[in-house]
Design goal:
Length: 243
């Protein structure tokens, strides 16, 4: 059978997708032992996990990008979940890092704007998960800053204000939220979750993956395995099994 004929007979296979939208903590999530890679492995043959992490970005920039990533004509229908994971850059101190800093009220408004946009392309609240920034281990991050000739440009207490704002936006908009800032600090030595005071270590990636999976599993558990197990394919008539 010619492949063109196969295409005419078979229904187009569209993999559902989970979109991970965020800053460097999302961009790096497909590295070895990353939280995004964990999700992709858990969801193989069920849906694609799409990494749309943008290192250094804040919500002011992200809200401009989102409509270029997801629209009614580019995958909104097949999008079964979206994570929005910003705040680590928005919460940078204005005086020391004005390029990345976004005022707290604007940060909250930007998150609401992105949720409203997703709803406008028929991605409902129950498919959206906000993730707060993780806590900042100031002494470790200060070493990173000093190595670049900079002063400490973030504070954990300030990051906490942005985390609280993220949680409130989720409550107001009816989405799920993963309060990473609070959850990680239940461990007295939360620095073990961080590789440099800001980004996630292997332990931090595992922690986030487990916490996030508890949210996603409920949303995605009903997704079927795509295409038959190989032992179930009729080898004498594969078209009957695969088209």
């Amino acid at each position: 059978m010619a492949l063109a004929e196969v295409g005419a007979r078979g229904r187009l296979l569209l993999w559902p997708r989970v979109v991970l939208f965020g800053d460097s903590i999302t961009e790096f999530s497909f590295q070895e032992n990353g939280w995004g890679a964990f999700l992709a492995e858990r969801l193989v043959r069920k849906c694609d996990v799409v990494n749309r992490g943008l290192s250094g970005y804040n919500t002011r920039w992200a809200k401009l990008i989102l409509p270029r990533l997801i629209s009614k004509s580019t995958g909104a229908e097949s999008t079964v979940a979206v994570t929005i994971f910003f705040g680590a850059n928005d919460s940078a101190l204005k005086d020391l890092n004005p390029k990345q800093h976004v005022p707290l009220e604007e940060y909250a408004a930007n998150l609401k704007s992105m949720i409203q946009y997703l709803k406008s392309v028929d991605i409902t609240e129950d498919r959206i998960i906000l993730i707060t920034p993780p806590p900042l281990q100031e002494s470790a991050w200060e070493k990173e800053c000093l190595a670049k000739g900079d002063k400490l440009n973030r504070r954990n207490a300030t990051t906490g204000e942005y985390a609280q704002a993220c949680v409130q936006v989720a409550r107001d908009c009816g989405t799920d939220v993963l309060d990473l800032w609070t959850l990680m600090q239940k461990n007295q030595d939360f620095s073990s979750y961080l590789s440099d005071g800001l980004h996630l270590s292997t332990k931090g990636n595992s922690f986030l993956a487990a916490q996030l999976w508890s949210h996603l599993d409920k949303k995605l558990s009903a997704l079927p395995w795509l295409l038959p197990y190989w032992r179930d394919v009729d080898h004498t008539n594969p078209e009957a099994s695969l088209l």
